[in-house]
Write a structure and sequence with these properties.
single chain, 358 residues, four-stranded antiparallel β-sheet, Methylamine Dehydrogenase, Chain H, mainly beta
């Protein structure tokens, strides 16, 4: 580890100690209660980004209650993106597009607290999507993709330059990571043995019927599912060999329907946020293709989607007439969805990114 990396690691650990002292009283109060399922999103405010935490209350009639809103210390402002908030175990990350930073998040009991700041590599800017995998934080912005050791935060791996500034999302599989480029392709980035970016990249050309505005993506092992949102084939499967299998989406196609954002569901299911259709559009697949199943209506326009680690819940952020909301669905044994709860409006125009902590 270089000196800068060591310094960041020490600062991160010191920050955790300080936060532990500050919240110890709150934790003592929370200790008598069970661990809750939390849904985390961000305000994406261009002047002062903040993390918003909702508590999912289960039972016969599940509900979502606002738990906390905490500033990240950075500026938001991202658009046309997904995956700006991620969580894994007790730790999470949220990107601050306008500040060229990523805020580390820590869960204490039923609280989510910002715990440190990671700066982008030199000359890299505008982070709009993050991924947590293989003990690394992957970040993509307007001109670069990079990897950082997680949770220490120091740059670990080689920076990959992007062919243009249209990146929508970054995700990681077993042997490779991918960036969807809204200009019409997917950037494949092999992972090094330790899980960081190797520095190599290959531009995957999508077929004409599935290359219009790739947006969301998620991995199933080493198989990528993505949404070329404005194409007739608005879902596609891509494997590590760069084989592409387009899948016809809901009809009529764009602009009436456009699956935009992706979450991997249980078994062979994929859930997508269909923004103009105001729905969750569901697909089945294997490693060589698939089929559109059905759409489940939403009370607004979705802008990101996530599935809980136990595969029992789906969360979607959407925008309605009174502002931003989080909707939660239960997932049954067959992968079908039941709409169970919505958050109340809290005065935020639109959320950006959504993740679970359990």
């Amino acid at each position: 580890m270089n000196f800068l990396g060591l310094q960041r690691s020490l600062l991160w650990r010191q920050g955790l100690v300080l936060i532990t002292v500050l919240v110890s009283g709150a934790l003592a109060a929370e200790g008598q209660y069970g661990r809750s399922t939390l849904v985390i999103t961000s305000t994406n405010d261009a002047n002062s980004n903040a993390v918003v935490t909702f508590q999912l209350n289960g039972g016969v009639t599940p509900s979502l209650t606002l738990a906390k809103i905490l500033p990240t210390g950075g500026k938001g402002g991202a658009s046309g993106n997904a995956g700006i908030v991620q969580f894994d175990g007790e730790l999470g990350a949220v990107a601050n597009f306008g500040s060229n930073t990523v805020s580390e998040l820590v869960r204490y009991g039923n609280s989510i607290v910002p715990a440190g700041t990671i700066r982008l590599a030199p000359d890299c800017a505008g982070p709009d999507s993050v991924a947590l995998a293989n003990r690394h934080l992957l970040v993509v912005g307007t001109n670069c993709a990079e990897s950082h050791a997680w949770p220490r935060g120091y740059l670990d791996g080689s920076v990959v330059s992007l062919p243009d500034n249209s990146a929508a999302q970054i995700a990681a599989g077993e042997s490779w990571a991918a960036v969807t480029l809204k200009s019409g392709s997917v950037l494949q980035m092999p992972l090094a043995g330790d899980g960081g970016l190797s520095g190599a990249s290959n531009l995957i050309t999508l077929p004409a019927e599935a290359n219009n505005t790739p947006l969301g993506e998620a991995f199933w092992g080493d198989v990528l599912g993505l949404t070329p949102a404005h194409s007739p084939d608005s879902f596609a499967i891509v494997n590590a060999k760069q084989d592409v299998y387009p899948i016809v989406g809901p009809a009529p196609a764009y602009p009436t329907n456009a699956p935009c954002w992706v979450a991997k569901g249980p078994k062979s299911l994929w859930y997508t946020g269909n923004s103009p259709g105001q729905a969750i559009s569901i697909f089945f697949s294997d490693a060589e293709g698939g089929v559109f199943y059905k759409s489940v209506p939403l009370p607004g326009m979705p802008t990101d989607i996530a599935v809980s680690g136990d595969r029992k819940w789906l969360a979607v952020i959407y925008t309605a007439g009174d502002g931003a909301h989080v909707g939660v669905f239960s997932i049954d044994d067959y992968g079908d969805l039941k709409h169970v709860a919505d958050s109340a409006a809290i005065g935020v125009a639109s959320f950006n990114g959504v993740a679970f902590s359990q």
